[in-house]
Specification:
This protein has 247 residues and is an alpha+beta fold. The chain contains nine helices and eight strands. Helix content is 43%, strand content 19%. A hairpin with a 2-residue loop joins strand 3 and strand 4. The termini are far apart. The structure holds P-hydroxybenzoic acid (PHB).
Length: 247
């Protein structure tokens, strides 16, 4: 169904959902309308309908957020569910050994999308969110996925822009290319302070039975920890996940 200006109602609904991101989780209707580039009256009407279906919900202070029903549908239908469920017991073991953030990410577009993250209260600062994204060039999981990605994707990322999150973020394409070769050779990526000055990310590839890299398994530790010491535990967990994917 088309509206007077030719845009489908579905298009408008999609614009409403696209406003929500990992940093934007709850908004008043007028702000939502502004960000979705819709009239307040239109946004208001659509929001009410979506709240009725449980796809959006309202806080006590009337702010709008993604509804539990939408989360339920998305979680159940997720194409990545088998990978996440297979990985979970291995991630729990790894988390118990390492005692810091443990996370599983997949390549999604030009970023790494995190399917799962286990944290502990005393762990170092972590910018990763479940269902959140990080750039490929600046995170350890991202670099692992990039190192094993098709050449076209590598080239697109290397062509930039390579945003500097900290002074340590690799922004020189030549150096980044050399790093990717080292990751393929060594089988892990170590990223001290690349995305957050206080944290070191370290990640290894998770392979499907045919050898294809399907995910990156990573930990985020404080800079003073000897991050390289985590590599054997990470490798063992990744291998366990790979073997379980066969069955
Ligand atoms: C990393 O994977 O390198 C990473 C991720 C999140 C952080 C820090 C490092 O907060």
């Amino acid at each position: 169904m088309k509206t007077a200006n030719g845009e489908s109602v579905l298009g408008r609904v999609v614009r409403i959902f696209e406003v929500f991101g990992s940093e934007v989780t709850a908004l008043g209707v007028s702000e939502l309308a502004r960000r979705a580039d819709l009239h307040v009256a239109t946004a208001s009407r659509l929001v009410e309908r979506l709240v009725g279906y449980g796809w959006l919900q309202r806080d006590e202070d009337r702010k709008v957020r993604i509804g539990v029903r939408l989360w339920e549908l998305a979680a159940r239908a997720s194409p990545t569910l088998p990978l996440r469920e297979t990985a979970m017991p291995f991630m729990e073991d790894l988390h118990a050994v390492v005692g810091h953030h443990t996370q599983l990410g997949v390549l999604e577009g030009d970023e790494v999308l995190f399917l799962e993250r286990l944290s502990s209260r005393k762990a170092v600062i972590n910018l990763t969110r479940i269902a959140g994204r990080l750039p490929l060039h600046a995170s350890s999981s991202g670099q692992v996925l990039l190192a094993f990605a098709p050449a076209e994707l590598q080239q697109r990322i290397l062509d930039g822009p390579l945003r500097a999150y900290t002074p340590a973020t690799p922004t020189d394409p030549k150096k980044l290319r050399t790093r990717l070769a080292a990751i393929r050779r060594d089988g892990y990526a170590l990223c001290p302070g690349y995305i957050d000055e206080a944290a070191t990310g370290i990640a290894v590839p998770v392979r499907a039975p045919d050898g294809e890299v399907v995910a990156a398994l990573g930990v985020v530790v404080p800079n003073d920890a000897n991050a390289r010491m985590q590599v054997p535990a990470l490798r063992a967990a990744a291998l366990g996940i790979s073997r379980s994917l066969i069955r």
